[in-house]
Design goal:
Length: about 240
């Protein structure tokens, strides 16, 4: 009998969904590394440099001009992929979501157990007094967002040169290690250390859903090249 995503899901009780930028492209958010991705666009300074901790400290005005223009898609809504993953959790089949995305769309779709490896645009804090601010506060600020105390407000996103949050990493790895099925979706698996998390999986089924080929293709039990939302939407009814 041919192995299908529907069959794998029906046999699974502890699914972990590991997602990257390709999960949110169907919500209108561009990814980073594909041909028309953010990192292929032409800027005076590369996006990787502008999204680094060093650049944030040395050029806060330019950092926030880019960040507000490209990294705050507050208009975006969850797509079929986010909704399908939330449904699997609601049905008791999904242990958790591990995501490289910072857009908060999994939570907006209803997912409860989400490990955000690279942080979230929806959490922001004053670097001086710690006061919390929303993504809307960042977006409407004139120039560099500042707290009522005068301190700069920093988004809770992991910039290049910063470590991942230890507690989040621990939870994600523990979850993947417990899974009987790992669905890896919408990621090129080239960003480390996140891409290495797949290596702790010891369960039954390793599934990959991605538009393009990845270094993981040969190791998977099922590989589907396509849009994540279309594939998951058809499998989770």
């Amino acid at each position: 009998m041919e192995l299908t995503l529907e069959k794998i899901i029906s046999e699974s009780e502890r699914i972990v969904f590991f997602g990257g930028a390709g999960v949110s492209t169907e919500s209108g958010i561009p990814d980073f590394r594909s041909e028309d991705g953010l990192y292929r666009q032409k800027y005076d300074v590369s996006p990787e440099v502008m999204l680094s901790a060093d650049y944030f400290r040395s050029h806060p005005e330019k950092f926030f001009a880019f960040y507000k223009d490209k990294m705050l898609p507050l208009w975006a809504k969850p797509n079929t992929a986010h909704l399908a993953v939330a449904k699997l959790e609601e049905e008791g089949k999904l242990l958790s979501v591990v995501t490289q995305n910072i857009d908060g769309l999994h939570q907006a779709a209803g997912s409860k157990r989400v490990y955000e490896l690279h942080g979230s645009i929806h959490r922001n804090h004053c670097m001086r007094c710690g006061k919390a601010y929303s993504a809307e506060d960042i977006l409407k600020a004139d120039g560099v967002p500042r707290c009522s105390c005068g301190g700069i407000i920093k988004p809770d996103v992991v910039l290049y040169g910063e470590p991942l949050d230890g507690e989040t990493v621990e939870g994600a790895i523990e979850s993947i290690a417990r899974a009987d099925t790992l669905i890896v979706a919408g990621t090129s698996l080239t960003v480390y250390p996140a891409a290495g998390f797949v290596n702790v999986f010891r369960g039954k089924y390793l599934v990959l859903i991605n538009r393009d080929r990845t270094p993981l293709d040969e190791k998977c039990d099922l590989v589907i090249h396509g849009k994540v939302g279309e594939v998951l939407g058809a499998a989770v009814r």
